[in-house]
Specification:
Rossmann fold, 33 strands, Elongation Factor Tu (Ef-tu), domain 3, 5 domains, 29% helix, binds guanosine-5'-diphosphate, alpha+beta, single chain
């Protein structure tokens, strides 16, 4: 790591590795090595997200900031940006101003997240103000002492992490609501883990202090036990007692949010084409697709040409959180926009580009990228961990652990701290009780972690998502086996386990000699299919032991080599190093599939 500070650099939300290298005046190899340190395995032509590019930039001594435009020529030409925009980009750093913090409220169910959001809205949106009542658009802004704060209106860490897994981090500060009469609960811990994994600072809102059985001290102690040490106890986490029902402490909470924001120095450049993230979208009966975008950089204006995910459009109308028509929106402002041809996804990026044509070109690129992106970047798997470590000094194995009971979780947690070598350790980013769900997968995906399930299953949605995101899920029911596997993976000793999948059977109908050492079996596929890459064995009536177990050497239909033959069809099969077919033999085709369980 270089100590030298090489100055500020603005990096777009997504950048190709080779362009990042150019931007940071270094070689693509150095960037690739830098990424590998963070368990991201990208090649020179792959796109990396800002969050990850920024890590590498920092380690090379730069001070990265988010931009959609870069001075790297390759990216400009790629995206068809205008000279005007390029000029804007060079002005970025001078134009940075402090922007309102974006806050997400998280915490255990029934601890008062919704009540808190409602109370803040009610007390801070002045009744006399034009269009004083807020409209539900997915986020709202309040003003405190002349400063604004943006609240995301969908509380909970599920939405927070789902967005993050899609590469969109919009939250600057997380407020964790803990009910003073109930204390730290499983979802409190989850929310804290999710905020930590995202490196978002947290503020504790100690809610329901109006209740007779509220026990703030106990809660503070419980928080300390899970490593959240509040200021009063000598730590650095701000804790504000509130009552979302009565409105007590709301002002204090808002002031503390502003204070934490000030320390964070949250800035953006309003004088450039806007970028943002879709936080909510729906199809409205009268107006068609309507999306709420949270502006992150620049100022969005009426009539701007925009790219939203794989769509291009023009901003036809904009409304703020009071339902008022507006002409422009600065960073951290949530606006509901009209003009999109379809309903986008939450987490999709919005970007303003110079012309309608540029918008179309870029939208097409995003669409293509999405189609080719079958395997997302940066996922870690236990089977390949050692190789990944060798290639680039991965320093830790991030783990999400789900167990059936707390006792086991404790035991596993303890054991995991002891595995690994000096230079590679296990980092438990989240531990919880219950089945593996979508939120766990999102967390693992966003953090480059694997998931370990102990005596629990993954639900269907989680499995589908894990497959899509390339997240490695391992199931165990014996602790020592789990620990052995992790240790083995960390030291490069893990043997991948395989499962056999029978693909189909063929019956040998005729036998042809086609050369000195080649015999073709004329077969009919009786069930399933046989593929060129299948493993094959021969099942023979009355034979003891295995007659043959090997690979298919050739598969033909008529004179043509084919890749696959399905049930009911006839074909010619040659097996590797085998000539002793008999009429009536059954050729069983199978494949070996890597098993994702350690159990
Ligand atoms: P969420 O699930 O975290 O969004 O929790 P809600 O906001 O829906 O609140 C759950 C319950 O706790 C509701 O019945 C609220 O009225 C109640 N509640 C929320 N905040 C307070 C509070 O400060 N004091 C009291 N006494 N009750 C509260």
């Amino acid at each position: 790591m270089k100590e030298k500070v090489t100055g500020p650099v603005s990096i777009p939300p997504q950048i190709v590795v080779k362009d990042l290298a150019e931007l940071l005046h270094t070689t693509p190899n150095e960037i690739i090595r830098g990424l590998i340190k963070h368990s991201i395995f990208a090649n020179i032509n792959q796109i990396v997200e800002y969050e990850k590019a920024a890590l590498v930039a920092e380690e090379l001594g730069f001070e990265p900031s988010l931009s959609t435009i870069t001075t790297a020529p390759a990216v400009q030409s790629d995206r068809g940006l205008s000279a005007n925009e390029a000029m804007m980009a060079t002005r970025n750093d001078d134009d940075m101003v402090v922007i309102p913090p974006v806050v997400t409220i998280m915490g255990h169910v029934d601890h008062g997240k919704t009540s808190l959001l409602d109370m803040i809205r009610k007390t801070k949106v002045a009744a006399g103000e034009a269009g004083g009542i807020t409209q539900y658009i997915g986020a709202y802004q309040v003003e405190v002492n002349g400063k604004k704060i943006t609240f995301l209106d969908t509380p909970g860490h599920e939405a927070f992490t789902a967005m993050r897994a899609r590469g969109a981090q919009v939250t600057h500060i997380a407020v964790i609501v803990v009910a003073a009469d109930d204390g730290v609960m499983p979802q409190t811990r989850e929310a804290i883990d999710h905020a930590r994994a995202a490196k978002v600072p947290i503020i504790i809102a100690l809610n329901k202090i109006d209740k007779a059985n509220a026990n703030p001290d106990l809660v503070k102690q419980q928080l300390a036990e899970i490593g959240v040490v509040i200021e009063e106890y000598g730590g650095d986490v701000v804790c504000v007692p509130v009552s979302a029902r009565r409105g007590t402490g709301i002002d204090d909470l808002l002031e503390m949010i502003l204070l934490v924001a000030e320390v964070q120095d949250i800035k953006a450049n309003p004088n450039r084409p806007a970028t943002g993230v879709i936080i909510e979208a729906k199809l409205e009966k009268n107006t068609g697709p309507t999306a709420t975008v949270l502006i992150q950089q620049g100022t969005l204006k009426m009539g701007d040409n925009i790219v939203v995910g794989p769509m291009s459009a023009k901003v036809r109308a904009m409304f703020n959180d009071r339902g008022k028509r507006i002409q422009k929106a600065a960073p951290s402002t949530p606006v509901s926009i009209l003009g999109l041809p379809e309903v986008p996804n939450a987490g999709d990026r919005l970007e303003v580009v110079a012309s309608e044509r540029a918008a179309k070109i870029q939208a097409t690129k995003v669409a293509e990228q999405r189609r080719s992106d079958s395997m997302p970047l940066g996922q870690v798997s236990l089977d390949t961990l050692y190789m990944q470590m060798q290639e680039g000094k991965v320093k830790e194995l991030a783990v999400v652990l789900k167990c059936d009971v707390q006792g086991t979780a404790e035991a596993i947690k303890n054991a995991l701290t002891k595995v690994g070598e000096e230079n590679i350790k296990v980092r438990l980013i989240h531990e919880g009780i219950g089945n593996i769900n979508e939120t766990d997968v999102h967390l693992a995906s966003a953090s480059g972690a694997i998931i370990i399930g102990f005596n629990v299953k993954a639900d269907g949605a989680a499995l589908r998502l894990a497959q899509k995101e390339g997240v490695d899920i391992r199931y165990y029911d014996v602790i020592y086996k789990l620990i052995d596997d992790i240790q083995a993976a960390l030291t490069g000793m893990l043997e991948p386990t395989y499962r056999e999948v029978i693909e189909g059977h063929a019956e040998v109908m005729q036998i042809f000699k086609a050369g000195k050492n080649t015999v073709i079996a004329g077969c009919r596929i009786t069930d399933g299919k046989i593929t060129r890459s299948s493993q094959a064995r021969i099942l023979r009536r009355n034979a003891t032991g295995i007659v043959y177990d090997g690979k298919i050497a050739s598969l033909r239909r008529g004179k043509d080599d084919v890749r696959e033959v399905a049930t009911g069809y006839e074909c010619g099969i040659v097996l590797d190093d085998f000539t002793d077919f008999e009429i009536g033999d059954i050729i069983e085709a199978y494949a070996k599939e890597r098993v994702k369980t350690g159990a």
